[in-house]
């Protein structure tokens, strides 16, 4: 068995036991640095994924607890898309990726880890970001701390708003 020493993950593991929706909690608490909320708007917010697929993995989340995009009001859809554009622009400035995967997983069977609160994933990609580690040892390396990335993104996201 391979072991990866990651003591910084205890916060995530501890929070995972909390009851209720993590997105609703982050929205209501107004503790943006603690919850890694990068940007807030009238109908949406952007939050760093604490279990990222790649460095810079951000989620754009509706403020209102809805399970699917067709349940959004027109003004919510527009605002969510504006936050999406702002975050892609900020990620381009801060991380300079070669591209992005942007997607919505609707329902558990579609891969949604949180299927009751609609959110959009933004995953920055670089040429060669899939190296031998995931292939040989099923391990992904994230090269930047969430707190460092958070500090850089809030500065740039605020400028784009």
Explain what this protein looks like in three dimensions.
By secondary structure, the chain is an alpha+beta fold. It has helices at residues 10-16, 22-29, 32-35, 74-95, 132-137, 146-160, and strands at residues 37-40, 44-48, 58-62, 99-103, 119-125. The chain has one domain: HIT family, subunit A (2-Layer Sandwich), CATH 3.30.428. Helix content is 39%, strand content 16%. The protein has a five-stranded antiparallel sheet with strand order 1-2-3-5-4, sandwiched between helices. A hairpin with a 3-residue loop joins strand 1 (37-40) and strand 2 (44-48). The model has no long low-confidence stretch (mean pLDDT 83).
Enumerate the strands of the largest sheet in spatial order, edge to edge or round the barrel: 1-2-3-5-4
Helix tally?
Answer: 6
| CATH C-level class | Alpha Beta
Low-confidence stretches: none
**Number of discrete domains:** 1
How would you spell out the order of helices and strands? HHHEEEHEEHH
Major sheet attributes: 5 strands, antiparallel
